C-alpha cells in the first residue's frame, strides 16, 4: 500500500478528522510546489516509521499533490487545491441567467470539461488495464462532456425554444430544475468517466497493507461513493443560493433594493461551493473498506480479516 494511502488509513477514520485534513489539503498555496518537492515529500513519508510535527508539511503536500497509484505528481490544474480556483468561477458562471443558449452552452462546456478531466486524473489506476488511457476511453470522455454540456444547458434551452415568459415557469427553469439536474450530471460524469474501474476492478489490500488482488466489487463501490459525494457537492451548491435568494426577496430591504439580489446569489454560490468541497470530499475516506464476503471468491484465500481496503480515488 502506498505511503499516501497508509496516511489516509491512519487519519481518515472519522468524518471530522477527514474534514480537518481536507481543509489543509485544499490550500491553494500548495500549487506553488514543484514536482521535485512533491516527490521528496512523498519519499519522506516512507523513510520514517513515525512522523513528527515538523513533517506535517510534507504529509500535506504529498496527500494533496501525489497520486498513490501512478507514483507521480498530479497535473497542476487537476490537483485538489486547484479545484476551487478553477471550477469555482465556472460554477458561478454556469448558474447565471443567460439571455441566449450559446453562453449557457459555453460555460457548461468549460465546467463539464474540467470536471471530466478532474475525475479522470484522480481515478484509481491500480489495475494494469486502467493505467493507460485508451482511444475508447477518450471517446467516452468526449461523449460524456458533450452530453452533460447539452443537458446542463437544458433550462436555458427550454426558456428560449419554448419562449417561456410566465414568471412561475421561468422560476422553475432557472431555480428549481437546475438543482436535481446539477446533482444528476455530477453523478453521471463520475460514473461514466470511471467506468473502467467497475469493469476491470481495483486493487484491494488487507489490514497490513499487503495487496490481495483486483476486485470489481471494490471498484464499483469506490465509483459510487465518489459519484454520490460529487452529486451532493453540486446539488447543494445549486440549491442553497436559490433558497437564500427566495428568502431575501421576501424581505422589505431586498424588495426596495432588488439589484442586490443577483450579487447575493453569485457570492452565496461561490461561498457554498467553497465550503462544500471539503465537506463532500470528506463523506467517504480515501481508503475505503469493503466486507470480506463482498469481494470475489478467488480473493478470499489471500484475504485476512473481516474487511479489505482500497483506494477510492477522488
Automatic annotation (TrEMBL):
The chain crosses the membrane at residues 171-193, 231-248, 260-284. The keyword Cytoplasm does not apply. It is found in: Mitochondrion membrane. The keyword Nucleotide-binding does not apply. It is a multi-pass membrane protein. Keywords: Amino-acid transport, Membrane, Mitochondrion, Transmembrane, Transmembrane helix, Transport. Belongs to the sideroflexin family. This is Sideroflexin-4. It comes from Characodon lateralis. The lineage of its organism: Eukaryota, Metazoa, Chordata, Craniata, Vertebrata.
